[in-house]
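Morning!

This is the sequence you dropped in the shared folder:
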Amino acid sequence: MDKLDRQLLALLQTDASRAHADLAKLVNLSPSQVSRRVARLEADGYIRATVALLSEAALGLQVEAYVAVAMASYAPDVVRGFHARISALEEVLDCRATTGDSDYLLRIVARDLASYSQLMNEQLLGHGDVASVRSSVVLDRIKHTTSLPLPPASA
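The structure's back. Tokens below.
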């Protein structure tokens, strides 16, 4: 990845809807060169997808929580069942297997506390596979970004 690739990735992380002609002006390349570079960055796996980032508030999603989950069993069929159940819940934005006291860390959004409580009680607990959960409800977002730190440009 050279300096121009890095510049393009940085620009695309802040606004992927920019036209290649606009990007070209910002990095001093032709639009066709930008198109080829972006296509290569996609093919090389640097760009996974181009998406629209939606507003939680505009969609009425007022509650965000992080939930640490400890499993009751590590039997393969139990773990597969948990993975399938969690993957099907659209309120679960992230599910990460972790080290430490918990087995998974979930990031969940919900309309309100009642919806969050219902999700916890009906979808997460009561299936026999979860031993315990520890929830932290977000009070305020200090920093939130979707931009990843980019490696230095190679010579």
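Headline: Residues 31-43 form the longest helix (13 residues).

More detail when I'm at my desk.
O.
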